[in-house]
Specification:
single chain; 228 residues; alpha/beta; Aminopeptidase; globular
């Protein structure tokens, strides 16, 4: 695990605008703007930031020249071995920030080869702690907050602590989420929380593969206990 690496996944992009926030604002634009502010805040604190896209189109083309798929985004994130991955979304409903972790059931350890669609399961305890850390920072900053759990790709395929950060309007004006001051306030709170998180994050233990059966003195096959 790279404790000083954070992955930001600004959802949508290119031909996929995401939700239409208002007549002039698409979700893909809000998520990218927030990602840029977060990247600047995190870089100023000494983090290396990996972004799945840094323009209106995904940063790297998928095989065949198309846009990055959800699986491609998960692959970028997992390759980084990051201390956290934040999947950025935006919504015209509600206000403040909606902070979600995966609703997968936690597993006690990470398989040597995690199943792709439920790889996040081993990281649920860490994602829950990360959610608590960021939620506390947002509330101390006076930002309205909703927390919960959802099952959304690519988050369920991520092999690191992972959350969805969904930005909602600051007030009754839906375009208030584009205000520089508001996005800066959110980004500052999250970056501060991640600075604390750096010293807390722990990788889950791996599930060790049991040894092959061996023959007992009585001639019966038995399986030895797995060794750490």
């Amino acid at each position: 695990m790279q404790r000083r690496v954070i992955v930001l996944d600004p959802a949508h992009g290119g031909s996929d605008p995401g939700a239409q926030i208002s007549d002039t604002t698409s979700e893909k634009d809000v998520t990218l703007a927030l990602a840029f502010r977060l990247r600047a805040m995190l870089a100023a604190r000494g983090f290396t930031v990996v972004m799945t896209r840094d323009s209106d189109a995904p940063a790297s083309p998928a095989p065949g020249g198309g846009s990055l798929t959800l699986d491609d985004r998960a692959g970028v994130a997992n390759h980084a071995h990051a201390a956290a991955c934040l999947v950025l979304h935006a919504s015209s409903s509600g206000d403040g920030v909606h902070l979600y972790r995966s609703e997968l059931d936690a597993t006690p350890a990470e398989p040597i080869v995690p199943p792709w669609l439920t790889a996040q399961a081993a990281w649920i305890p860490q994602s829950r702690l990360l959610q608590r850390e960021i939620a506390g920072a947002l509330m101390r900053s006076g930002i309205p907050l909703v927390t919960g759990s959802v099952s959304v790709r690519p988050m369920d395929s991520l092999t690191c602590p992972a959350l969805i950060v969904e930005l909602a309007p600051a007030d009754e004006d839906v375009d208030s989420m584009n205000r520089t001051g508001y996005q800066q306030q959110v980004a500052r709170a999250i970056a501060g929380a991640l600075l604390v998180w750096e010293g807390q994050v722990q990788a889950p233990p791996q599930l060790w593969v049991a040894a092959a059966p061996r023959t007992s003195p009585a001639g019966h096959s038995r399986r030895t206990a797995p060794h750490p």
